[in-house]
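Inverse folding, one chain.
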C-alpha cells in the first residue's frame, strides 16, 4: 500500500506572512518555501492572488513616483489657453501610455492599475 501524504492547510494569515517574506531583499521564493516546507510553485500561486500579495498592502497610500519634465523651461511650464496638453507615462515592462487633451484622473488611475495587473 502506498504511503499517503498529509497536506497542510494554510490559513490566509499564514499565506500573507509567507508571501510577505518573499519581498525581503536578498531572499528568494525558494528559500521562503523551504523554510515553511511548502512547494515554491504554491507560493508563486499565492503571490498572484491579490488577497496574499504583499504589493497590495497599502495600495491606497500616496507614493512618490519619479517624474521627468522634458522641454519645459522657466515660464513655459504653464499651458497657454487653447494649447493641447499631453502627458506620457512609462509603465513597468516597457509600456508607455500617452494621453492628449482633457482626461479624468480617476479613470486614468483605473486604466493604469488595469494595465499593471
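Residues assigned per position:
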Amino acid at each position: 500500500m502506498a504511503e499517503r501524504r498529509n497536506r497542510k492547510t494554510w490559513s490566509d494569515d499564514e499565506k500573507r506572512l509567507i508571501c510577505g517574506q518573499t519581498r525581503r531583499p536578498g531572499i528568494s521564493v525558494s528559500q521562503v518555501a523551504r523554510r515553511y516546507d511548502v512547494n515554491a510553485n504554491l507560493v508563486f500561486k499565492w503571490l498572484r492572488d491579490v488577497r496574499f500579495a504583499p504589493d497590495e498592502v497599502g495600495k491606497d497610500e500616496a507614493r512618490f513616483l519619479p517624474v521627468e519634465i522634458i522641454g519645459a523651461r522657466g515660464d513655459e511650464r504653464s499651458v497657454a489657453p487653447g494649447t493641447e496638453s499631453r502627458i506620457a507615462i512609462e509603465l513597468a515592462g516597457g509600456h508607455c501610455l500617452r494621453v492628449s487633451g482633457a482626461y479624468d484622473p480617476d479613470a486614468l488611475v483605473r486604466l493604469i492599475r488595469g494595465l499593471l495587473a
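The longest strand covers residues 86-90. Strands lie at 86-90, 96-100.
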